């Protein structure tokens, strides 16, 4: 009785097990698994993948500039975000696709295969770059390694033309150990296509990408010739923010300072006016120091002009102060001294000339005459001093006008070069 009941149950269990066995596939049965195992089973990544060792392995390079992250003029450092591609042929990783379900491309771990030792000469640091562990390999053995890199590189930055500066920074790729007889470099795209390609560049930053020119060369050394490809990243700054916050206030301060020369040198209002302008220059320089890039090699033109204008204004203020001190303080003191001297002479003259009235009158007349002569001499000295100050003031005015004109012409020229 029990056997008759269990027989159909066992039949159902066997049928279900057969169905599950039919629908379940082991990964080792896939063609992709067999292909990967066959390619890497006897592969030695320490050996350059060529059958003929005299044949060089050509590595094709390509570069896309994605963004300019930072330009540090003080430390001469450029930080860029680039998309880097390198393609080479591995003769040990080719297969017949018809034998593996028409698989023509697979991904393999980069750590398991040979890879070229390409470095960047200007390399200083790599920050927050994604480490992609896989590369694509096609049936002919061509390997493509693509990865984004945030490159921190050394660059010679010139800030004289700030904010109309154009910078040219290079990224030079070369093999660190293999000579050109072993590893050669070539362009994956034509240099013209690389130069004009800005499709992936982000224009929201402070800098605008102009071009990425590229050149191939062989660097000769005692160890042999090393192939290298240099990408020159040419960029220019967006100057509108600095024109509004720096250039327009600096030109306005210079024009206001220029108007102070129309005041007389011995005018007290000129001292107050020049002092206010100097305070304005001081505030402007404090704000400028936070915005103008600092560089050991060169000083921006706007910084030089602001310093020159400040010293020029200080010189004119000192000159005006000397004029006022001379006219307002020294001249009355000299006049008062001469007056007291003649008053004393008159007093003694009166006591000595009391016996005769004519002698007393003559003494008084001599005293008045001497006083007037001294007064004329003092006035003449004051007039000569003011003439000298006026001439020096005109000289300063012309030099200041020349400096302002030269500054304006230079800025216009730099703007024209920047636009061109």
TrEMBL record:
This is 5-hydroxytryptamine receptor 3B. It catalyses: Ca(2+)(in) = Ca(2+)(out); Na(+)(in) = Na(+)(out); K(+)(in) = K(+)(out). Residues 1-21 form the signal peptide. One of its GO terms (cellular component) is postsynaptic membrane. It comes from Macaca nemestrina (Pig-tailed macaque). One of its GO terms (molecular function) is serotonin-gated monoatomic cation channel activity. One of its GO terms (biological process) is serotonin-gated cation-selective signaling pathway. Residues 246-304 form the Neurotransmitter-gated ion-channel transmembrane domain. The chain crosses the membrane at residues 240-259, 400-418. Keywords: Cell membrane, Disulfide bond, Glycoprotein, Ion channel, Ion transport, Ligand-gated ion channel, Membrane, Postsynaptic cell membrane, Receptor, Signal, Synapse, Transmembrane, Transmembrane helix, Transport. It is a multi-pass membrane protein.
